[in-house]
Amino acid sequence: MDRAYDRTSPRHGAGGRCDNRPVPQTHVRRGLALVVTAAVLFGINAGVTRIPIEAGLPVSTYTTIRVTFAWLVFVAIALAFDRAALRRPRGRDLLLVLALGIVGVAFVQWTYNVAIVRLPIGVALLLEYLAPVLVVLWVRFVRREPVHPRVWPAIALALAGLALVGRVWDGLQLDGFGVLMALGAAVCFAAYFLLGEELTSSPVEPLTALRTVVWSFGVGAIAMNVLGGWSETDALASSASMLGRLSDLTVPAWAAMVSVVVFGTVTPFFLYLASLRHLSSAKASVTAMLEPVVAVVVGWLWFSETLDPVQVAGVVAVVAGIILAQTARHVPADELPPPL
Fold first, then answer.
1. Residue 221 near residue 68 (C-beta atoms within 8 A)
2. Interval 160-167 mean pLDDT
3. CA pair distance 257, 249, nearest whole angstrom
4. Best label site of 68, 197, 224, 323, fewest CB within 10 Å?
5. Model-level pTM?
6. CA 202, CA 132: separation in Å to the nearest integer?
């Protein structure tokens, strides 16, 4: 079995166990289901996000509200169901939570929001989704763990598909700062998976997914309140068009923002972290490439955005790349390259 993919190495036992037993397939399927659900919710949220922003809410304020209220929801859940999640992490875990909150929660959203303003959204998505490549490179060359060679063509196929989906050749005149921010988003997104994996599957005392999000989003909320602020929040009191094919319908802008917080932030971020108790960061990040595909489909169904044959081929390529990456877990250990 691929240790970097199925968490069977002594460093990352299944669910935090320090052993060499393979992860049961039910656990793997559960992890994949969590990641796919999170990716679908994030993809749908790309459409919902437009409602409060088109109503006049600044992107910086949108991000601050999103992170702050998501943290409050996580705290409320912890108070109701698991007060142990409010216990402050200590030592190394505290440092990892600080890094996850600043880099993996606040900065990933800030850099991406800047990128999509300055770049074509397809280009921004393609650059952000270099994250799985960074994760696999980290696993192979920093952790020095074996990664099956099949992973590389799988990532290449998925990235090529994203390029087709985003029609990146339509945006060759690129804003340099926008490119820098999109690459920063890729680094931050990769860090989210890697840091989350370290916290939720430590062989000593793994943090629960709820405890991890409570504290990391608390740190992220502080960071975004410093960076983003609360300007022009009166836009949330207005009625907002649902845009696209639903433009004849209106909803309170604050209701769309509630949906962003609950279904576009709290639920998917929690599911991603929960999946890391069953999957490696490498497999989870590759599967998360479904998110921009879902966003494109949402744009087609909801906003009447064109989905031409080239983009359809890109969607197929992304899904094929993800499936190819998942099949790596069926490879016997003796077919893996040695650890570095």
1. yes
2. 77
3. 16
4. 323
5. 0.77
6. 21
| Distance (Å) of CA 177 to CA 61, 133, 134 | 21, 22, 20
Longest CA pairwise span in the chain (Å): 62
> Residue 236 class from Cβ within 10 Å (0-12 exposed, 13-18 middle, 19+ buried)?
buried
Q: Residue 275 is which amino acid?
A: S
**Is residue 93 within 8 Å of 86, Cβ to Cβ?**
no
pLDDT digits (tens, 9 = 90+) for 97-156: 999 999 999 998 888 878 876 776 666 777 787 888 888 888 888 888 777 777 788 888
Structurally, how many domains does the chain consist of? 1
Q: What is the C-alpha separation between 101 and 108, in angstroms, rounded?
A: 10
Task: Please indicate, yes or no, if residue 14 is contained in any of the structural domains.
Answer: no
Helix (H) or strand (E) holding 213: helix 209-227
- Is position 30 within any domain? no
Q: What is the pLDDT of residues 14-43, one digit of tens each?
A: 333 333 344 456 677 888 899 999 999 988
The CA distances from residue 256 to 39, 60, 72, 190, 250, in Å, are: 19, 16, 17, 28, 10
Beta carbons of 295 and 84 less than 8 angstroms apart: no
What DSSP assignment string belongs to 258-319?
HHHHIIIIIHHHHHHHHHTTTS-HHHHHHHTTHHHHHHHHHHHHHH-----HHHHHHHHHHH
Give a yes or no: residue 236 inside a domain. yes
On whether residue 115 sits in a domain, the answer given is yes
